[in-house]
Amino acid sequence: MVSTANARAGESAGNLPADVTSFVGRRREITLTKRLFAEARVVTLTGPGGVGKTRLAVRVANNMRRSFRDKAWFVELENLDDGALVLDAVIEQLSLGGPSSAASLETIVDQLKNREMLLVLDNCEHVIEDVALLVDALMRWCPGVRVLATSRQSLGVAGESTVVVPPMQVPDPDHLPPAEAVEQFSSVRLFVDRAKAAVPEFEVTEDNAGALMRLCHHLDGNPLAIELAAVRLRSLSLQQLEERIAERYDLLTEGRRGAPPRQQTLRALIDWSYELLDERDRRAWARMSVFSGSFDLAAAEHVAGEGKGVDILTAVHSLVDKSVLMREEDGGEVRYRLPHTLRDYGLAKLADHGETGKVRHRHCAFFAELAERFAAEWIGPEQAAWVQRLRHEQDNLRAALRYAAEGSETGGTALRLVTDLWQYWGIRGLNTEARHWLDEVLDHTPRDLPERARALRISAWFSLLQGHLDKAMPKLERATVLATQRGDEVERAYLTLLHGLVAFFQDDQRRGVDLVGEALEKFRRTEVLAGELWSLHALGLIKGMGDDADGGLRLLAECIQLSTEHSELYWRSYAQWATAQVQMRRDRADRAENSVKEALRLQRELDNRLGIAFSLDTLAWIAHRQQRFERAARLLGTSSALWDAVRSAPGFWARFAGDHDQHLMQIRTALGPEAFDEHYERGREMSLGHAVDYALEIKRHSRRSTAESAEDNVHPMPLTRRERQIADLVAEGRTNKDIAENLVIAQRTVEGHVQNILTKLDFTSRAQIAGWVAGQRSGDGADSPAL
């Protein structure tokens, strides 16, 4: 993703999660929260688990996002188990960043200080001190930023307002209204909505209305409790359910008088849900609670499936059916997730069973083995699939690292896990997180482990990527001593390669050629393909940027051929980019353009953000040579945003930095400062997908404008058939009531569709919808008019 909040705002409404279930009630809380933002810059939604804080925050953010130039942005903190990662989570999920890794807070402030945006920080209670420090800095230095937090307690920062999210409105069991009036209570509306999802034929009748209202009273209006109870209608009548929950609540709250009533109710219902399960499902629930974020069936079977007669597939089906596990599907892959409250409950049960250590160890072993397979299979045809797989498992990989780093007997596992993932960290631009884990693992593991040399070497590489040569060199020296003592020829070859790259970074070409050439011979002798490809790329680039362009191009061609033979994308893309660099030095801009565009296509497939930053920069230079100055300025803007996102900078590579600065100054002179700044900022504001399309000069749709206007980022038809039908009626000047009567649907349904249309098209008025419809009818093809 492009690195600033504003960068994606031009293409979307931010990164707010979709609420896949219908939203019921909470009008008062929404209004109150919005009103508080008129007086306060920080509003925290507090309340117990299951009360609906996250869903309320998302709804408020969706309602308010148009009030902010840079829209609303969402950061999920639930799966962090280390407050030190809060800043990295914010940087990654907002795609912020900057070259400095030592001052991440300063980086966030620098990126957001000129933004006008609503920042949602979700599930803060377990890392509240680190969140409070972040929010305090934002309030001091970022005047256009507003923060909406969800937490079981307030943040405690200056100027904070809190909204206690109450239970939903419930009927008074002693004064029940008639059946036709039951849906005046938001808790009843929610129950009915979820009941119909579980049992489509469910209806409120005179016979069951009383039981329904008493049941919602017993559930104390807690949304999670209501959803857990509603699914029980698959096996019980409403009257049976009401009787059992009333009895259960009275029994289970006897010993918990010190807890708030709504917490007693939710705990009672979760207890009841747990005890209704058979032993297989109970055990599976407890064991699957060690997962962080989502997980797939294979992981569940390995981690939770140990033991005679444990059928995890059947247990998963059962727990999904009972709304304990949430099912998610993305791109044909099904994954599962435990809601936060149910995960905490499962962890407590796991401790009661005395299985916490054993199951966490299996979890760690599973993901360590996954990382080992990734490292072993990286040079091959599945690189893009591997990156996607590890993105899904990132929270679980962090949890496994945490467990391994803290264990006295798992130091070797921790070192192998963190080093096996180094290619993934680099591709995702998570350089600072990689350094965090490497430093932590190196600090907490024995110094005699054989994996230590590799970890020191990789830690040095990430320091180099972020321009910290002073921190890289001592690590390289220690790694060299360890590898020499152990006689590890492969590790010594990698260290020789890195020393050669350090020389190149420092503009010492001769030393760089000698050392990288020596490393290449070692890798060939030991038949290490990954090292050979890296060395071919590095040596070709160093020679080609020096006085041996022909020799450099031959080496790069060899790297491209070898990587193509193995269906490898990563080093092939870098070799194509390096070829473009050499061709630029020979004044062959057309050949350079073909090479770097091929590099960019491969890097997009891998989502290699550091590689994309290099390629966008180089394409800007080529556009400059072609005297396409506006395009050159915009491409420099896109690359600048991406350099920030991966927390790196052209200045970290001495030979590259000089060319970058020279081109930038000459483009600025050609356009003039004002025009340059305008196009540069427009480039920074592009989304990543739009930026790559623009760089490759790909038109998403046939347009009447020229290729130079590709930055308008046209999307496919964003509306469903029903939404398009309603948009057409809006364009005719029809009211929501007229539309409802015309289509024979509820007026509330029309209102929901109109809101969805406004959200999808990023509009604020019905007049804009009418303008969009007119544009579609005239064949303009634009998804939105100029605003």
Describe the structure.
The longest helix has 22 residues. The protein starts with a helix and ends in a 10-residue tail after the last helix. By secondary structure, the chain is mainly α. A five-stranded parallel sheet has the order 2-3-4-1-5, sandwiched between helices. The N terminus and C terminus are likely disordered.
List keywords for this structure.
two-stranded antiparallel ribbon, globular, single chain, 62% helix, five-stranded parallel sheet, 38 helices, mainly alpha
Query: Helix count, per DSSP?
Result: 38
> Radius of gyration, Cα only, in angstroms?
29 Å
Given as residue ranges, the uncertain stretches (5+ residues, pLDDT < 50) are: 1-13, 99-103, 251-263, 701-716, 779-787
Query: How does the major sheet shape up?
Result: 5 strands, parallel
Strand content: under 5%
SSE class = mainly alpha
Taking strands numbered 1, 2, ... along the chain, how are they ordered across the largest sheet? 2-3-4-1-5
Helix fraction by DSSP (H/I, runs of at least 4):
55-70%
The separation of the N and C termini measures 24 Å
**Morphology call:** globular
Query: How many β-strands, per DSSP?
Result: 7
pLDDT average, as an integer? 84
Pfam families: AAA_22, GerE, HTH_77
Protein name: LuxR C-terminal-related transcriptional regulator
Domain HTH luxR-type: 712-777
Please specify the SSE layout and strand pairing:
Layout lengths: L4 H5 L17 H10 L5 E5 L6 H12 L7 E5 L9 H8 L10 H9 L4 E6 L5 H14 L3 E7 L8 E5 L21 H13 L10 H10 L4 H8 L7 H15 L8 H16 L2 H10 L8 H8 L7 H10 L4 E5 L2 E5 L2 H13 L3 H22 L5 H10 L1 H13 L4 H10 L1 H6 L3 H14 L7 H14 L3 H18 L2 H17 L3 H18 L2 H16 L4 H17 L4 H16 L3 H18 L2 H17 L3 H17 L8 H18 L1 H12 L3 H9 L24 H11 L4 H8 L3 H15 L4 H12 L10
Parallel strand pairs: 1-4, 1-5, 2-3, 3-4
Antiparallel strand pairs: 6-7
Protein name: LuxR C-terminal-related transcriptional regulator
Pfam families: AAA_22, GerE, HTH_77
Organism: Saccharopolyspora ipomoeae
